[in-house]
Design a protein that fits this description.
Blueprint: E1 2-5, E2 16-19, E3 29-39, H1 41-48, E4 62-70, E5 82-85, E6 95-99, E7 104-105, H2 112-132, E8 140-143, H3 149-161, E9 164-169, H4 175-181, E10 185-188, H5 194-202, E11 207-212, H6 219-224, E12 226-234, H7 247-252, E13 257-259, H8 270-285, E14 293-298, H9 302-310, E15 317-321
Parallel strand pairs: 8-9, 8-11, 9-10, 11-12, 12-13, 14-15
Antiparallel strand pairs: 1-2, 3-4, 3-6, 3-15, 4-5, 5-7
This protein binds NADPH dihydro-nicotinamide-adenine-dinucleotide phosphate.
The site of NADPH dihydro-nicotinamide-adenine-dinucleotide phosphate has 31 residues, from helix 1, helix 2, helix 3 and helix 9.
């Protein structure tokens, strides 16, 4: 089968096309024909070595596909079922393996491309607003990289809850996407300092929560615009990891709460994974959550997909298609 392999850490060029033999499902596993692959920032962190993984390996964990075969002991799935996961072993490939207890059924109303696009980012946006900081109507939140994959979904969910949504985007070209998703206030970080802009709109320290997937570049500014006892949710490092924090800074800024969550801990059990996926896929199936696929490339162009994601030129989701795009 055709696959992408990483043999050493580095830039996008270390994502190399190769031929591998088909994987075989062991007990409790599914062999999948991959229909679409989700590209995520975590794939970049693993490629660069920020998050170490054993090498060589086939990158990627998010995909949609059709079950080709099931290993011994699998009860919930049969060949031909349409499934999606964010826990595949080597998603950047024509065929991949996933543990059955980490896969979910895809409703008929959800296309394979959208299923691959929404598992990681949709479940992330969902846990952030429902569990990490359970957002309520009338509260004020700030969402960074609001036109990105997680960002567009977070904005929609926050707006649906009835929160007032402040959003940042890197360039003018992304303003419309963030506004279209429901952001009330969109700040272009290339043009103005976001802390000044937020306070110009809503006064001193107006925010209940900051959802920050950008990391190093935005962390300190976020702390500066939170209300006393507000919460900083720093959930990603697109601009680099956040520097070590002096806990007294949280006290000085008003007894702030700080958390650095990972989706893995919010879908740790199969029931929680299935419940959250059902909620998100249900919103998509009902037309209540729009999943924007901004970039669709053939599998062999995985390096180009990473280049675009890192260059800040993408909006919405990046997916790879094993059989052309
Ligand atoms: P995005 O589509 O949001 O792409 C990243 C965006 O970050 C860019 O488009 C850019 O938007 C912004 N950005 C700001 N500064 C930089 C920089 N220096 N370099 C690159 N990008 C920058 O990616 P994803 O939706 O896949 O992921 C968003 C974040 O969410 C990532 O940090 C990711 O790791 C995190 N994440 C965390 C999870 C968790 O559970 N903790 C799970 C899933 C994702 P702009 O130009 O508009 O500023």
């Amino acid at each position: 089968m055709r696959a992408i392999r990483v043999s050493r850490t580095g830039g996008p060029e270390v994502l190399e096309g190769c031929e591998l033999s088909d994987p075989q499902p062991s007990a409790g596993e599914l062999l999948l024909e991959v229909t679409a692959v989700g590209v995520n920032y975590i794939d970049v962190y693993r490629r660069t070595g920020l998050y170490p993984v054993p090498l060589p390996s086939v990158p990627g964990t998010e995909l949609s596909g059709t079950v080709l075969a099931v290993g011994p002991g699998v009860k919930d799935f049969s060949p031909g079922d349409r499934v999606a996961t964010l826990d595949a072993r080597g998603a950047y490939a024509e065929r991949s393996i996933v543990r059955a207890d980490r896969a979910v059924h895809v409703p008929q109303a959800v296309s394979p491309d959208v299923a691959a696009a929404v598992m990681m980012q949709g479940l992330t946006a969902h846990y952030l607003v429902t569990d990490t900081f359970p957002l309520r109507a009338g509260q004020r939140c700030l969402i960074h990289a609001a036109a990105g994959g997680v960002g567009l979904l977070l904005v929609q969910l926050a707006r649906r809850i009835g929160a007032e949504v402040f959003a940042t985007v890197g360039s003018e070209a992304k303003v419309q996407a963030a506004r279209g998703a429901g952001a009330h206030h969109v700040i272009v970080t290339a043009d103005e300092d976001f802390t000044t802009a937020v306070e110009a709109i809503a006064g001193k320290r107006p925010l209940d929560v900051v959802y920050d997937g950008v990391g190093r570049a935005t962390f300190a500014g976020g702390l500066a615009v939170l209300r006393p006892r507000g919460m900083m949710v720093t959930f990603g490092n697109a601009s680099g990891p956040v520097d070590p924090v002096n806990l007294f800074d949280l006290t000085a800024a008003g007894s702030l709460f700080l958390t650095r969550p990972s989706v893995s801990h919010y879908i740790a059990t199969t029931p929680e994974l299935r419940e959250r996926a059902e909620a998100v896929l249900g919103l998509v199936a009902d037309g209540a959550l729009d999943v924007r696929i901004g970039t669709r490339l053939p599998l062999d162009q995985a390096a180009e997909a990473h280049r675009r994601l890192e260059s800040r030129e993408t909006s919405g989701k990046v997916i790879l298609i094993p059989n052309g795009a």
